[in-house]
Amino acid sequence: xxxxxxxxxxxxxxxxxxxxxxxxxxxxxxxxxxxxxxxxxxxxxxxxxxxxxxxxxxxxxxxxxxxxxxxxxxxxxxxxxxxxxxxxxxxxxxxxxxxxxxxxxxxxxxxxxxxxxxxxxxxxxxxxxxxxxxxxxxxxxxxxxxxxxxxxxxxxxxxxxxxxxxxxxxxxxxxxxxxxxxxxxxxxxxxxxxxxxxxxxxxxxxxxxxxxxxxxxxxxxxxxxxxxxxxxxxxxxxxxxxxxxxx
Length: 247
Ligand code: C5P
Hints:
Layout: E1 3-8, E2 26-27, E3 30-31, H1 32-43, E4 48-53, H2 59-73, E5 81-85, H3 90-98, E6 106-111, H4 119-130, E7 135-141, E8 148-151, E9 160-164, E10 172-174, E11 178-181, H5 182-192, H6 197-201, H7 207-211, E12 218-221, H8 232-245
Parallel strand pairs: 1-4, 1-6, 4-5, 7-12
Antiparallel strand pairs: 2-3, 6-11, 7-10, 7-11, 8-9
Helix pairs in contact: 1-2, 1-4, 3-5
The protein binds cytidine-5'-monophosphate.
Residues 8-11, 22-23, 52, 86-90, 93, 111-113, 230 line the site of cytidine-5'-monophosphate (C5P).
């Protein structure tokens, strides 16, 4: 099975507030994207990597080149790393990268923001695809209780009121990399290209596009290290995790 990995790194990262793309923000002195790339390379599952970077960005292209050179200098196997301009939405960025990965059977889509995802997670997802899964996602069990809320009928008390409490034991938190048979992912993204703005805004991961085509999406264990760096607090947590567990 030939496997391509898409790393989406074209987000602006406004919530981190550094004024540079999130994938470029330093984590213990190195850009977030460098960690994400090294995790993919260390897993050994990728035959090709395509990184979606912000349009006209040069700094993240440089990170790709440096990680590739460092891996080659270490004498390890390093798949070709291609950088492409991302799009306005995450799904657009995935589509831009997809067209460059024609010759593979399976594709894993990974958020650069999950910089510390351990290599084993990439391997678990790839193994499940090799076993015949067309769609595979890494998940964690819920530790918090979750409520569904609606607008409150008394804003003086609070803006929201609880509607119901779903059964926590059946709920999962979803991470990346999400893996797909290339044909299923390509078909799902072609359909999503026709979405109106409201539908497009509701797309928060690739698996939901494939689910809507009635393709079964299998779930394998993710990792607590695979946190998505979104806020300053996440960055502090990621640095603490790096200090304790290394990259
Ligand atoms: O914004 P958020 O953290 O949800 O983005 C998830 C991932 O998608 C990030 O790695 C980000 O760089 C990427 N992204 C992208 N293109 C966009 C928006 C987000 O590649 N237009």
